[in-house]
Every structure is written in structure tokens, then in C-alpha cells.
Design brief:
Shape: globular
Structural class: alpha+beta
Order of helices and strands: HEEHEEHEH
Number of helices: 4
Length: 156
């Protein structure tokens, strides 16, 4: 990790290397598995493209509704997010329409789902401090649990 304020692209260097990010995500996922194994489905880490890294952290009740919660690191914006997503595009569209047409606006509802996976999303941590694992993990966990609580409340 570099300590400069920014690199030649103007991107802050308080971010972490790709390997460091993956290490954080693995450790954080294991922490959640130990804490929430009975009530949550916690899936594998998705390392796909250079845009996002994520893993599912879904209450079993939401999974039964073919929904999932994703803990996401957005590489472009250097931030952690939490997303409500559908198991497939049909489920995503069905639930997105429910939220889009409601008067509930606690969290961001995308204007379209054509190119994305999020039905509802929320920014948890901007420019995370990777040097303090405990603080960062606590911020993400608390924010994700609050988001899940709100989503479950709305879907009751």
C-alpha cells in the first residue's frame, strides 16, 4: 500500500492492493460465517472483473424469496456497498418494480436495472481504512445488518 495522497491517475492511494483486498474479503467473510452461520447463507467471493469484488451475505428468509444481499467492493469508486439483488433477472425485475413504485426511499433505488444487478443499494464505507481491520469490518457489518433489517421490514 502506498501512502501518497494520489497516483498519476488522480486516484487516492489509501486503497489497498488487489491481494490485500482479497485477503480482507476472505477474512471478513470467515468472520461473518462464524457469527451468522445459522441464519445466513454466505456464498463464495466473486473476483470477476476489475469493477467489483463481492460475496453474498443473505438471510435465509430472503434467500427463500430468491433474493440475495451482496457485500460489494466497488473498485472504481473505492468504496464498500451493500446490494439487494435477485437470483435471476426475472426476480430482480419483479422486486425492483416493487421498490421503484413504492414511496420508500431510505436507500438508493437504481433508475434502471438493464445493466446492473442491484435492486436497492447503499454505500457503506467510502475510502476504507484498510490499516484498521477491526474498525472497517465493524463499519461494514453494522451497515449491512441495518440495510438487511430495513429491507426485511419493507418486504414483510
Amino acid at each position: 500500500m502506498q501512502n501518497d495522497k494520489s497516483n498519476t491517475n488522480g486516484i487516492p492511494n489509501n486503497s489497498i492492493s488487489h491481494q490485500g483486498l482479497i485477503g480482507f474479503m476472505k477474512s471478513f467473510r470467515i468472520h461473518l460465517m462464524k457469527q451468522y452461520i445459522d441464519d445466513y447463507y454466505i456464498g463464495s467471493i466473486y473476483y470477476g472483473d476489475n469493477n467489483i469484488t463481492y460475496f453474498p451475505f443473505t438471510p435465509k428468509d430472503l434467500k427463500k424469496q430468491k433474493l440475495k444481499i451482496a457485500i460489494v467492493f466497488n473498485h472504481q469508486d473505492l468504496r464498500f456497498e451493500v446490494w439487494l439483488a435477485g437470483q435471476n433477472k426475472q426476480i430482480q425485475k419483479q422486486y425492483w418494480e416493487i421498490f421503484k413504485d413504492s414511496d420508500w426511499h431510505k436507500y438508493h433505488i437504481p433508475s434502471t436495472i438493464t445493466d446492473g444487478f442491484s435492486i436497492v443499494d447503499h454505500i457503506l464505507v467510502v475510502n476504507p481504512e484498510f490499516d484498521n481491520y477491526d474498525m472497517l469490518a465493524e463499519q461494514i457489518e453494522a451497515g449491512a445488518l441495518e440495510f438487511i433489517k430495513e429491507i426485511e421490514y419493507v418486504l414483510r
